[in-house]
Specification:
The chain has 515 residues and is of the alpha/beta class. The protein has three domains: 24-178, 3-Layer(aba) Sandwich (Rossmann fold), CATH 3.40.50.980; 200-403, Rossmann fold, CATH 3.40.50; 407-506, 2-Layer Sandwich (GMP Synthetase, Chain A, domain 3). 31% of the residues lie in helices and 23% in strands. Helix 7 (184-193) crosses helix 8 (210-222). The chain is globular. The N and C termini lie far apart (58 Å). This is AMP-binding protein. It holds the Pfam family AMP-binding_C. It comes from Hyphomonas hirschiana VP5.
């Protein structure tokens, strides 16, 4: 299915409604505007297989661009609106994006990034940016009918690389694939959630993240109305559920926490009985939190484990979770194997690295070493996201560790190496480790543990100086929320940092030398 089908059968049905402003885009408008954008992209020289970048906050224009690129056979890179100009520049260059589209409220950062990257084709949405062509005016003269060489494009989203730099996940693009070709998420949404054109889907998260973008586009394919929050607020979320009679949503566990922390009289005054399906992933959900959410919303909360890489997926519905608490489900895309460090498959109940078979391995753009590292050394057709877990006798997967100590804060993946690479350049820093520490609201918070240079005393002033140094070079979400000091970080003679020993100090283990 595709929104173009619904534009013919139900042209006036709302495709997108912004929860805050109330701006509404019908399926007819979405179809016509995405056609015009596809024509504009061709006129700008974008051919099938080319790449464009989007650097914007939540807006109906976001979907018009994505669907325009999708029907033009392009890769569309959705860049976090929180990134700094150097970070945006890196992604533009690494992805090979020929064109940058920015929201007017991100114009200053976009201008700096584009100038540094040498990007010439620059478009803006939701307002004007100096040096950028307003997309709304640019696309207006083009036909509202499809381009002659329509074919399906896809997203190219960024994850971490081996050096800490983000790496693009670039799936194969099949030339000539019809724009309405089915995909795994459409199948899951129909089979697992009963999604239909009558469904109302609420999206509370930034669209540059993989899950919100893909689930929104999936429900639009099916013909559902998608309600988009400009930004998440727990009470506003509940208001939207009641106002629009929301049936489906996708969240991260920190959103559950924020809703549960609302005063009970606030929480309970909103009618959420329309909700038939709420799915979560991205970060571990504490068992007590999920128990409370199921008690509140009913057994309508599903969970899955997967990555942007698309190399496998597990899934669990509430009834099975309640009898297997803590599980992330059984495989529905690929088969799961638990293996030791040599790649041998382990017995049921033993912990090891999680691999998927029967799927396409990840394809990290410009990083053959990362592609190789994702493969099982004995079974090279098995691939892993690097997580550690175990299977029970019923085939349910339980995750017990995270890939390379990645930090997940509020459902956002934060890779410590990038922050470490910045801090180590400070003249007063001899060594540094960045880890995730427990945080009541976000699951984890970023903490830096710094070994000062000889002769440099640890102090609150030094911590403030290092925090400011990070904020000048990194987006806010990657900056430490706190800094501790250690006279000597635990390293092997080979130089390997024993980050687990540092992390354990904050997660209940002893022998801390933190000062």
């Amino acid at each position: 299915m595709h929104p173009s089908h619904h534009a013919r059968t139900s042209p006036d049905r709302p495709a997108i409604i912004m929860a805050g402003s109330g701006e509404t885009i019908s399926f007819r408008q979405l179809d016509e505007r995405s056609n015009q954008i596809a024509h504009a992209l061709r006129a700008a020289g974008c051919q099938p297989g080319d790449t464009i970048a989007i650097f914007a906050e939540n807006s109906p224009r976001y979907f018009e661009i994505c669907w325009g690129a999708q029907r033009a056979g392009l890769y569309y890179v959705c860049i976090s609106s929180r990134l700094t100009a150097p970070e945006v520049k890196y992604i533009i260059e690494d992805s090979g994006s020929k064109l940058l589209i920015t929201g007017a409220n991100k114009g200053a950062v976009a201008k700096e990034a584009a100038a540094a990257a040498g990007t010439k084709d620059l478009w803006s949405i939701d307002g004007e940016v100096e040096g950028f062509k307003p997309l709304e005016a640019l696309a207006a003269p083009f036909p509202t009918t499809p381009i002659a060489d329509e074919m399906a494009g896809t997203d190219m989203l960024y994850s971490s690389g081996t050096t800490g730099r983000p790496k693009g996940i670039r799936p194969p693009l099949e030339r000539g694939l019809p724009i309405d070709a089915d995909n795994i998420l459409v199948q899951i949404a129909r089979a697992m959630s009963g999604a239909s054109p009558e469904s109302v889907y609420l999206s509370p998260a930034p669209l540059y993240h993989a899950a919100p973008l893909r689930w929104c586009m999936t429900f639009t394919r099916i013909g559902s109305t998608v309600i988009v929050m400009e930004k998440f607020d727990p009470e506003e979320f509940l208001k939207a559920v009641e106002k629009y009679k929301v049936t489906h949503t996708q969240v991260v566990p920190t959103m559950f926490v924020k809703m549960l922390k609302l005063p009970e009289d606030v929480r309970m005054k909103y009618d959420v009985s329309s909700m038939t399906f709420a799915i979560h992933a991205a970060a571990p959900c504490p068992v007590p939190v999920k128990e409370q959410m199921i008690a509140w919303w009913g057994p309508v909360i599903d969970e899955y484990y997967a990555g942007s890489e698309g190399n496998g997926m597990t899934y669990v519905k509430s009834p099975d979770w309640l009898t297997h608490k803590g599980t992330v489900g059984r495989p529905i895309h690929g088969q799961v194997h638990i293996c030791d460090e040599e790649g041998n498959e382990l017995p049921i109940g033993e912990e090891g690295q999680v691999y998927f078979s029967g799927t396409v391995p990840p394809n990290y753009h410009n990083d053959p070493e990362k592609n190789k590292a994702a493969l099982n050394p004995i079974h090279p057709d098995w691939s892993s996201l690097g997580d550690v877990g175990k299977l029970d006798a019923d085939g349910f997967l339980y995750l017990t560790d995270r890939k390379s100590f990645m930090i997940i804060s509020g459902g956002v993946n934060i890779y410590p190496q990038e922050t470490e690479n910045v801090l180590i350049t400070h003249p007063k820093v001899a060594d540094v480790a960045v880890i995730g520490v427990p945080d009541e609201d976000f699951g984890e918070a970023v903490k830096a543990v710094v070994q000062p240079m000889p002769g440099i005393a640890h102090s609150e002033e030094l911590a403030a100086e290092l925090m400011a140094f990070c904020q000048a070079n990194l987006s806010k979400l990657k900056c430490p929320k706190s800094i501790d000091f250690d006279p000597e970080l635990p390293r092997h003679a080979t130089g390997k940092l024993y980050k687990r020993l540092i992390r354990d100090r904050y997660w209940g283990n002893k022998n801390s030398r933190i000062v």
